[in-house]
Amino acid sequence: MTELTGRHVAAVFVFGFGIIIAVNIALAVNAVSTFPGLEVPNSYIASQEFDARREAQEALGWSVAAEYRDGRLTLALTDRSGQLAPVERLELHVGRPTEERDDLPVALGPDRSAMLDLAPGLWRLDVTAEARDGTPFEYRAVIEVPR
Predict the structure, then answer these.
(1) For residues 123 and 71, what is the distance between their CA atoms, to the nearest angstrom?
(2) How many CB atoms lie within 10 A of CB 68?
(3) For a surface tag, which of 10, 77, 115, 146 has the fewest beta carbons within 10 Å of its beta carbon?
(4) What DSSP element (H or E) covers 7?
(5) CATH fold for the domain made of 43-145
(6) Domain ranges for the chain
(7) H or E element at residue 126
(8) How does DSSP classify residue 108?
């Protein structure tokens, strides 16, 4: 058995801390490269308009139910009485909560459903609609696709 010298101890420390630093750099690079960036260009202006948009949207009385099962995404956008909401324009966007790489727009059929091949994990569903009177409606939901 060889004798443990100061060089051996120094090599173990350099190697150990080298691994820790390399892993931290790899995680930081991955975090920065997958972050989608700013949601709004100026958060102060966006916050001033938020309450008015929220009140207008709540006055519509619309609710959203989204379901993903067997490769089919189904959306139910209903009014207070449970009937289909009178929507002038409806857009859907599906993506991962933390990155843009897998994002895709969704075109719904007349039955308000679409066939999608989503990988297992968490997905974010962004619903953007407009009422016939021009009131905007926005909704975000998280969909979990089982493994």
Answers:
(1) 13
(2) 19
(3) 146
(4) helix 6-34
(5) Immunoglobulin-like (2.60.40)
(6) 43-145
(7) strand 121-131
(8) -
